[in-house]
User: Fold these one by one.
Assistant:
Number 1:
Amino acid sequence: MAVYITDSGDGILTAKITGEIDHHSARWLRADIDTAIQDRSPNRLILDFSGVSFMDSSGVGLVMGRYKNMKERGGSVELKNMPDYIEKVMTLAGMDRLLGGR
Amino acid sequence: MKKAQNEMKLIFPSLSENERLARVAVGGFISTKNPRLDELNELKTAVSEAVTNCIVHAYRDTVGLIELTAKLTEDGVYIKIRDRGCGIEDVKKAMEPLFTTLPDEERSGLGFSVMESFTDSVTVKSKKGSGTTVVMMKKLRSRI
């Protein structure tokens, strides 16, 4: 489990998550992404799920928390490259509306 | 339930690193049935939710044992996850989508909703102070 942060310099921060997202790993992912938001103050956060091999509802909590964090700063969140079954978990929470490019 | 063709029991402490152990063990156990990838992922997710509930809620300020039983029958899998933790006061309320007692810890309140969506049946029995048992059944459509 790791997260790779890319700052494209135009206010867009991309966090590419790899590995498995569960309650155990979510706390580290949360800390890493929030630190990057704090340091770079982006307008838009893109969470890229292309490297995620497993996710349960702890991932929904992770997205909800980052959404709240970005919204408080006047920014937005986009979810990208989400595998089908992970999308199904997001849909249960109504978070699929944040889905952008695949 | 039809006669079990194979079964396993796993007992482990309620440590968060064991969430992965539980779902990977169940994934390996059902692999002899040659399940479809979506069924495998759904079952692993449902198991992860049930075990996480034991760790986050049942044994909140302590570490206790979680007992996972899995049985394969002719047409599917039976999973029982049992803890001897604090129990659930109102099971019906706990199973409502988005209901959580821990919003500050970014718990989404979707654990039971995921279990219900990703399996064919979920039964929860709980007694305050003595623990909770979750039983899930899922049909498996073998690829061959």
Note: Chain B touches chain A through 26 residues (CB under 8 Å).
Number 2:
Amino acid sequence: MSNAPLLAPSSPLLSVRDLTKHFPIKKGLLGKTAGAVRAVDGVSFDVMPGETLGLVGESGCGKSTTGRMILRLIEPTAGTVEFDGIDLVSLDSRAMRRLRRKIQVIFQDPFSSLNPRMTVGAIVREGLTIHKIAEGAAADARVRQLLDEVGLRPEYVSRYPHEFSGGQRQRIGIARALALRPKVIVCDEPVSALDVSIQAQVINLLEDLQNEFDLTYLFIAHDLSVVRHISDRVAVMYLGKVMELADRNSLYEAPQHPYTHALLSAVPTPDPAKEQARERILLRGDVPSPLNPPPACVFHTRCWKAQDICRVVEPPLLQVSPTHQVACHFPEERKLV
Amino acid sequence: MADPLLRVRDLRTYFYTENGVARSVDGVSFEIGAGETVGLVGESGCGKSVTALSLLRLVRPPGRIESTSEILFDGQDLAKLSEKEMRKIRGARMAMVFQEPMTALNPVFTVGDQIAEVVRVHHGGSKKEAWARAVQMLETVGIPAPEQRATEYPHQLSGGMRQRVVIAMALVMNPALVIADEPTTALDVTIQAQILELMRELQQRLGTSILLITHDLGVVAETASRVIVMYGGEIVEEAPVDELFKNAHHPYTEGLLNAMPQVGHERERLATIPGSVPPPTAWPKACRFHDRCPYAWDRCATEHPPLYQIGPGHSSRCHLAEEPERRADKHEPFVVMAGAEGRP
């Protein structure tokens, strides 16, 4: 990996274009392809250096698949992912492996993402060895330093994951991601499995580390208040597509897509007075199957504003202001609280 | 005032494990009135789910409900009933909605059969009648095409539909009390909104009392009229819902509320509660929260606080009730995060 300087801050560090993943469904003895799950369907966005882009949506909307395609843990069906000017999708696996030290990941479940047979030290050290960054005493010192940076005692190096609580395990996962001094970290639901007070500790840590090491985050989560807290910009996904993408304040205070309206209005507020005053939009039914998504606008089957055009023409993700994009034929600003 | 529907007195549920006695529920007393929704909140390991299982007498060895405990429900002490007598109450007068609808339902029976079975066990009658009742119940919980859905298996339904089935099963005998343990935690937020709305609506129509167990204070604010906060196997605060959110008294409740991201304070540091919930085999002495508390003083480490009455319907297990001026002395808790959090 070259140590070439990054592009000017005005150009994106990560640029995703028309990213698509269709998981084929095989049927019968001969394994004939009998359709596809359209998990991600033409997703495009940029992530600027040093920013946090939040990616929200309900289960099955494709947010995690998007994150994994960026890391090439899942091979995209189509589309490009440009990192620092290099298209990751076209790299061979060796080149990709070398580049992966620049793009790291933190997983949701701190219980299954750490190898139970490896000590904490070995887990954090593995990347250093594989990428030949440090060996011997230098690696030991680096591991201890990393544990210290994530708020764990350096003495913990010789312990095993089961000896730690959920919050501490998530810190181990963060230390492992940090070990290679990455530019980008894909955070895939990093606090969803944690209790609220522990969640706050981990969010603070992620923000501190971002400031200290100039990190760029793609923050994937379903919890809208956590995403609001940590993100600079937010993309809302539904059935494999981006419905709305805007800076945090526009998205939460003046959302324009009906799905975003419904999503935000469904979040319970921890304040009974506000709770009674707020407007609530109840969506009918469930998310349609990604095996057979509705034609044109994927949201039209549940949308109260849907007209004929929504069933025929897919609305493109259009700029409605310099910092706000919406994919809807009838966007409309709406205050929800 | 009439007797409450449920009156729990000094409930203690201990687990006798190799690592010592886990006092998961340790002297809990509360009441639930007819038609009331009470929220029970706290983090993992605070004892809220064991409290729920104890009410239904579903605690398995090495767990045991201690003999001092009283669970007065409908004029009977459930803690003293035989298993056979208890079975008549469970599912009929008192029912439970579990968090994970996939594990609460039997994968090899149709959902209609599973609901009908509850009717047959408690009510008798013909298979046909029970089936008709099951279909009617599915309709009540808002499942479209209930005759068709009743013949389907759990895996054919979405998560939200499954949770509706579980609710239908809980309500089919028209119970007086439903215990809902994290009923929406596994669901997406728009589906959660549907289920909470359904529970509210059914409660108004049927007059069922609900004990809602959750870690989500937003869900409590939306649903409950009274809130009980647990920590370390004890109730640490109890208040009407508005009062709790406006005037939280116990430092743990305060910590929980402050730890949530707030609108208008984006990218600022969140308040945290240092450390984590201690294991139930080793609750700290005296006040169980003192080593994580930003106000703790020497008294907190030596004297176990009672539940002080601090307002109408509002009680708090904190010595600040007697020495409110101490709230000004906020300090760093005595634990260092990395050290005290470790279980080893």
Note: Confidence is low (pLDDT under 50) at residues 1-8 of chain A.
